[in-house]
Structures are given as structure tokens and as C-alpha cells.
Amino acid sequence: MEGELKPVKEMRRHKRYEVQGVNGSLTFSVDAKIINMSLEGMAIETTRRLNINSDYSVRLRHEDQHLELKGKVVWSTLSRTEKTPDGDIVPIYKAGIRFVDILDEKSRAIISFIENNRIVTLEKRILGRFRMGAKSALLEYPQDYVVRKMSLSGMLIETEMPLEKEDRVDMSLKIPDSGEITIKGRVASVNKKDESEDFYLLGIEFIDLGQDEKNTLSEYLKKVGDVEK
Fold it and tell me: What is the average pLDDT across 103-118?
């Protein structure tokens, strides 16, 4: 039955239940360094692998100038590795993003951003690429997920997004008969569902759950058993 819950016997802080018909979407943010940029797109460096053919929201900022664009990843490759101050080795990926849905107003904004941040002379052929120095961009990638298990303190979800442990994500969660709530989550575990498929099972711990959201989850979970408040 849609939305039916079945208890799972596990020693946890809160009772955990298998769920059906519960889903939502999450948004993960990635910081990136802009290598070069044109009216058509940009090349970036980031410590996270970007999914080819996936759509990202791109946020650019320079002093009081803010620019939000939509882009599609057209190529992505591992460039090198670097050592952090803590001694950890992290991968550095390069990726190409093509801007989409660029109207005249957005085009003028991109030209202005390039003009304010370029480190070479702006040529007449604006479609040329220009090196941007150490400017950064924020990439946001929305992804749907399905909830497999849930408790008052977290949930197990299935998604195509390959997140890493300790990642923080903004999430919306659709509760049957209760509408949609907004929560923040910490990735506590990551497991690939099947080696032949690009799906992942992520253990999510709720962070700073508000009282209204906690009440909504509690009422939903009470339908099949006692849940600690």
C-alpha cells in the first residue's frame, strides 16, 4: 500500500521504518574556480566530479555584481591531485559548462562580468574565451531521491547523486498527507546500490531539525508505532 510503513528491528536512537511513497529532492553546492569564460560557457576546476549532461545552477559574484545562470556540463575529467594543509590528497577535476537559456539581458550581464574580471584585453570577438584569474563560482545541482527507511533522526535514501560522507545538503521532503517540509542533512554513509547501476544508498542524518518539521515527522511515524519526541 502506498505510504505503508513497516518497522525495522535495529538498535538506534529512534525507531526506523521502511517506507514507500515518500520522496523529495536535494540540492548540493560545489565551489569551483573559473579558468576561462566566454558568452557561451566556461571552464572550471573543482574538487568534485561533475556529472556530464547534468544541469547545474551557476552563481557568479564580483563585489556588488551577482549573476545567476543555468549551465550543462559538456565534459569533465580528472586533472591532478593536490595535498591539503592537513596532509590529505584530494582530486582536482576540470569541467566545461555550456550556458543555456541565455537571453539578451543575461548576455549583457555575462559580458559585464567578463569585462570586470578578465586578465587580458577584451577583444572585439566577444565569443572568444578569456582567462578570469582566481575568480570562483558556486554550482548547485538539484537531484530527486526516494526514501527507503526513515526515523525521527534521519533516513536512508536512494539517489543518482554520488555524494561523500560528511557532505551537507539542503533537502525538501514530501510527507504523505502532510505536504512538503524543508530540512538540512549530513551524509553519514554512502553505498552503491548495485555495481551495474548508477544509484547510491545514502544515510542522511537530520541537522537542526525545526520543531514544526519534527512534529510533522513524528505524527507521520506515529501511524505505525511509538516514536520518541
Answer: 68
Domain boundaries, the chain: 6-27+141-221, 30-140
Query: For 10-60, how does the pLDDT look when each residue is reduced to its tens digit (9 = 90+)?
Result: 455 677 888 888 999 999 888 999 888 887 888 999 999 888 898 999 988
Whether the Cβ atoms of residue 23 and residue 157 lie closer than 8 Å to each other: no
SS3 128: coil
List CB contacts of 76: < 8 A, sequence separation 6 or more: 49, 50, 51, 52, 93, 94, 95, 96
What CATH number should be reported for the domain whose range is 30-140? 2.40.10
How confident is the model over 135-162, as a mean pLDDT?
91
> Do the beta carbons of residue 7 and residue 226 sit within 8 Å?
no
pTM: predicted TM-score of the whole model, two decimal places: 0.72
The CATH number for 6-27+141-221, chosen from 2.60.40.10, 2.170.130.30, 3.60.40.10, 2.40.10.220, is 2.40.10.220
CB 205 within 8 A of CB 197: no
Complete DSSP assignment for 54-99: -EEEEEEEETTEEEEEEEEEEEEEEEEEEE-TTS-EEEEEEEEEEE
